[in-house]
Amino acid sequence: MQRLAPALRQDNVPLDLISLIKTILAATKEISFRVSQADLGGLMGSTLDENIQGEVQKKLDVVANELFKDILLESGFVKAISSEEEDTSVAGNAVGKYIVSFDPLDGSSNIDINSLIGTIFSIHEAPEHMDADNPDMFKQSGNRQVCAGYVLYGPSTMLVMTTGSGTHFYVLDRTHGGYLLVQRSVRVPEDTQEFAINMSNQRFWQAPMQNYINDLLAGDTGPRGKNFNMRWIAAMVGDIHRVLCRGGIFTYPKDSRKAEQPYKLRLMYEANPMSFLIEQAGGLAMTSQGRIMDIEPDSIHQRVEVIMGSKNEVEACLGYYK
Ligand code: F6P
Ligand code: MN
């Protein structure tokens, strides 16, 4: 099985980007170890703090964030980082070539129940004309990502990553301590009979999403003429991983409860990197209005509607919005 660096060189990834990716992965190896230690490391449970999004921070959220931040800022490769757990961007090396956005631990509510969690990251080139402490550097669309990926801390620790030449799967091999390529150029099946949505929010969705899901639930005697299965892991990394492995549609739609905040998922470190991975695997990653990666962001913690996965199913869903 191929090691990470040769696999990346085969895709013509520049050497400095390979070094940055290796730096990110060094942090994930430590997080993977700490996650596996659970209560033995005293890292279960919540802190007394909330992040900028008003969510209670788990101890592991904070530890993972600090680890990432320190290792990235010390590396010299990055001009700035932005994280779900940081109010604004944090400056690094003034001449660093890249900026990194990350969700250090996605699916935090799964931490205390020993279920799936992961780290999501997205890399852009740093604009040369802006200072390292200028958060406007992060206002770049998903189309301009040079690399995106996640690490899933599951029964095995897996890296799923793209640099724009397909989406590849790697597994952390604990015998030598590195990631090995296990599947090159994964393809999302175009058709599916599986959907992922938090059904408990149904009454707050817009009419098109209500109608679409009702038709899926109607099964083989309804307008779709086939039965659908439902899965919900409550960690985007877990749900998107399943979609990449066997197809499906994953959506977190618009919600009518808070007019000022109708979406849940964050563009920069959740929706964009997952969109890059899904599109590189032949799937679609949309809002009801257009491609996610075409969105020109206006803030680091911006939220967005998400409808992604198997091509034909995403198109079927979008048909209800026309
Ligand atoms: O990071 C946000 C997140 O935890 C995603 O990973 C996940 O898909 C979603 O929120 C879960 O939402 P809910 O709490 O509604 O199940
Ligand atoms: Mn998250």
Describe this structure in words.
With 322 residues, this protein is an alpha+beta fold. It has two domains: 4-183, Fructose-1,6-Bisphosphatase, Chain A, domain 1 (2-Layer Sandwich), CATH 3.30.540; 194-319, D-Maltodextrin-Binding Protein, domain 2 (3-Layer(aba) Sandwich), CATH 3.40.190. Helix content is 29%, strand content 25%. It is built from seven helices and 17 strands. It has helices at 4-10, 15-37, 59-75, 207-217, 236-246, 267-280, 311-319, and strands at residues 46-50, 56-58, 78-83, 90-91, 98-106, 118-125, 147-153, 157-162, 167-173, 178-183, 194-196, 229-230, 249-252, 265-266, 284-286, 303-304, 306-309. The strands form four sheets. The protein has an eight-stranded mixed beta sheet with strand order 4-3-5-6-7-8-9-10, sandwiched between helices. The chain has a five-stranded mixed beta sheet with strand order 12-11-13-17-15, sandwiched between helices. A hairpin with a 5-residue loop joins strand 1 and strand 2 (56-58). Helix 2 packs antiparallel against helix 3 (59-75). The longest helix has 23 residues, at 15-37. The termini are far apart. The mean pLDDT is 96. Bound molecules: 6-O-phosphono-beta-D-fructofuranose (F6P) and manganese (II) ion. 6-O-phosphono-beta-D-fructofuranose binds next to helix 5. Residues 103, 106, 236, 270 line the site of manganese (II) ion (MN).
